[in-house]
């Protein structure tokens, strides 16, 4: 009887763990307001055509960094979430920061909603958004937003 109880308990724990892993895999990466789609998981985002761009930016403290950023261009993301006729896009970060972008910044050839810098995850801290908007070099670092969790279509 003890063996059956132990085996049943082990199976139950294994099934519970598998469910937790599946939940983590299907975790929401971004949510949307004003789009046909309410949210995208990491897997859905990664299934979109990815691009890698080399960008250099200088932050407000004068520090200059260069990297290869990999992610999704706005036109690809907009099509995937069913956005048509947007005038601008507001991004909201996990720390509460908000920024509104005109379409010309989003649609610049080398602007990207990135998950990776130099092949490594851009953000690994628990609780922070994983997506950064990296604006084309034609725009200053003030057009970059990190830790994005929500996009509002205007």
Report a brief summary of the structure.
Helix content is 27%, strand content 38%. The chain is an alpha+beta fold.
Report on the architecture of this protein:
By secondary structure, the chain is of the alpha+beta class. It has a single domain (28-153), classed as Oxidoreductase, molybdopterin-binding domain (Sulfite Oxidase, Chain A, domain 2, Alpha-Beta Complex), CATH 3.90.420.10. The chain contains 4 helices and 10 strands; from the N terminus they run αββαββαββαββββ. The chain has helices at residues 2-25, 42-47, 74-81, 103-106, and strands spanning 28-33, 39-41, 51-58, 64-72, 88-93, 98-102, 112-117, 120-121, 131-134, 145-153. Strands 1, 2, 3, 4, 5, 6, 7, 8, 9 and 10 form a 10-stranded mixed sheet that branches. A hairpin with a 4-residue loop joins strand 5 (88-93) and strand 6. The model is unreliable at 1-23 (pLDDT under 50).
Q: Any chance you could write out the topology, listing elements then pairs?
A:
Blueprint: H1 2-25, E1 28-33, E2 39-41, H2 42-47, E3 51-58, E4 64-72, H3 74-81, E5 88-93, E6 98-102, H4 103-106, E7 112-117, E8 120-121, E9 131-134, E10 145-153
Parallel strand pairs: 1-10
Antiparallel strand pairs: 1-2, 3-4, 4-7, 5-6, 5-10, 7-8, 7-9, 9-10
């Amino acid at each position: 009887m003890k063996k059956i109880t132990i085996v049943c308990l082990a199976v139950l724990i294994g099934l519970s763990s598998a469910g937790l892993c599946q939940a983590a895999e299907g975790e929401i990466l971004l949510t949307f307001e004003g789009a046909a789609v309410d949210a995208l998981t990491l897997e859905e985002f990664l299934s979109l055509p990815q691009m890698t761009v080399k960008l250099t930016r200088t932050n407000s403290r004068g520090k200059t960094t260069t990297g290869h950023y990999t992610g999704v261009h706005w036109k690809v993301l907009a099509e995937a979430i069913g956005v048509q006729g947007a005038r601008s896009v507001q991004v909201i970060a996990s720390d509460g920061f908000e920024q509104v972008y005109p379409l010309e910044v989003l649609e610049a050839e080398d602007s990207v909603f990135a998950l990776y810098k130099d092949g490594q995850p851009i953000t690994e801290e628990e609780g922070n958004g994983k997506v950064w908007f990296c604006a084309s070099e034609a725009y200053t670092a003030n057009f970059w937003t990190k830790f994005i969790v929500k996009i509002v279509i205007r």
